[in-house]
């Protein structure tokens, strides 16, 4: 410990206690101890740092006493600002920095001033990657084996980050940083996202002092369900043309400027997580026009893949001897076999995607420019990760104007139906996704997609790192193995801060990542990777990396095939493939047959890793987990009563009406002159339901993924006075009970709805198919008005407040249970996947 000038023995003991066992870089005290200007760094082993003993003198009166202030905690001298950027659903071949045709000048600039990394690995899915990123632990260790909407009651899959795994935000905060999180938060459990809380799993509860963004997997960028800290921003009033990609950049710039102007010496940490390029792809018109004028995609996705591959070799980001795997003709139709109409639609789809990516990179550049304007860029560590997984193929082979359709089993909407949205693609009238052919190309030089944890197209990202004050090997390429769990220990090493041993009295689990800060030095440009072994697993597909070897399970499910019967033994019922990535960069040469002993060895090691990191039990189911029960605030309840308007209750915490019978009853008072407005709604333009008064008439409407709307309507306007409105729905399926048998045939079945006014039936309609899985995730359950988008644009525009008085709203749900005879019938049966065809025959268009 360096010598410290003390005013008394008491102060020396105090400082020693604060700094015990701290690294040399952290043993720093400034100012006069005991005075208001004193600061100190801490060992960081215990967070928060224990309160020091009073170091002054207390006598009977103040004149004879000596005041004393505890030193303010600050990071070690020279600790950098940190900007951690992670984009969404973007594969290796998306940015121009790594050979893509989409211009990403911000990433290009950072790469020229810093380092490029071509072996950066994700988990193959969004929130699992993000949990690993902020905790430095594997995604199963952090409870995120899958997204929260698929969570199950096992430690590796419950979507709860344990208190023994403090985040990078919390560690930096307690060490004197200002911390913030902008954009996507997909790490708050879907069943803990309401205003009931608890809020310990929200960004502000995990060490990020300021949060501005959305909670969930995706968001309408034109009309997002936004939060500031834990409060919904409502009513949301975006200016004409407002878009969240620009809005969050503005917010981040404002926040960092306020912090700097308040205390220029305080370093800041920003986790910057834009929604781009996750569906819906929502760029501004300006960027669409820029990309369209470039004619980047007229030759199709096969040619695009070849062009990107050539660019990558020219840039040196892939080896000269790398090879492309064959085009998957059995999965995706080659471009030259498409019809003229298919080509026209697909080009429109990808131009919107590319505009979204380019627009996002531009706005990231504005945030970085603000660091420069504040004079902070030189000592700012910027980590810009392209994608939290490979490019998404959840639009299916044909793409879709509504991603919510995919989550409800409609994965191949006919092109002639989709063309009805051609002119509004990417606007607020679509929740759009592109053809998987483009997704395959954007993962060049690899194959497959997001969700595919055994293929590099799902897990091999790329990254640039800039830190002008430290990194001098400008434009260098780094090929060491890096996983997202390595980011947290790298930031801590860069800041000179220890990972804590105890946080809030809880002993911390070991950090599982390995710092890659050693790669910042030019002398280590070709150093061996320090991260030697890494498992991968996502929904039953898995792999094990060990020092260049990669054992992979053969892909047995495309991402859009979510409704089939799951592999009941995903650990063993697999075709195993083996690759030597030291010689085979693109995972193109399966050598399992030549090395059976290596396959056996790595299979055993995967099982050992799986046991170590909470991967077991393996589960290959996909859609079934979305509707599986979990401990939200509605669990075990069959009746819900509301007596006044409220908005903003998220889908994961609201009454779930799918695959069940239910009755909704509203007791209202209609004033003189009549009434209109929303009584109850959940979801929005792209899937949901609404119970409302339209020109005085009661209406109940189901929006079936923006393809069909089923509407019940009273014959006449309600007279002034008290009325009881009721919607009664009788479901004909077996419901969620079938899931225990790996059987989804009981979901999305027919049902009959009856609208009643003051006890009298006014209209009965049978729905031949109901929604099996979800409503629109980023829309909420609202009473008394409608936030964001409406379920039927032809009838009303939000917020559509209810002008009648709501006395009481009651929802009663009756979930079907399996009889002993039905259980016997289902046992051992093979389920058939939903194909969505009953919905695809409709011929709708934008409304």
From TrEMBL:
The keyword Calcium applies. It holds the Pfam family Sulfatase. Keywords: Calcium, Hydrolase, Metal-binding, Signal. GO terms for molecular function: arylsulfatase activity; metal ion binding. Residues 80-497 form the Sulfatase N-terminal domain. Residues 31-44 have a biased composition (Polar residues). Residues 30-52, 828-847 are annotated as: Disordered. It is an enzyme of class 3 (hydrolase). This is Arylsulfatase. InterPro entries: Alkaline_phosphatase_core_sf, Sulfatase, Sulfatase_CS, Sulfatase_N. SUPFAM superfamilies: Alkaline phosphatase-like. Residues 1-26 form the signal peptide. Belongs to the sulfatase family. PROSITE patterns: SULFATASE_1 (PS00523). Its EC number is 3.1.6.1.
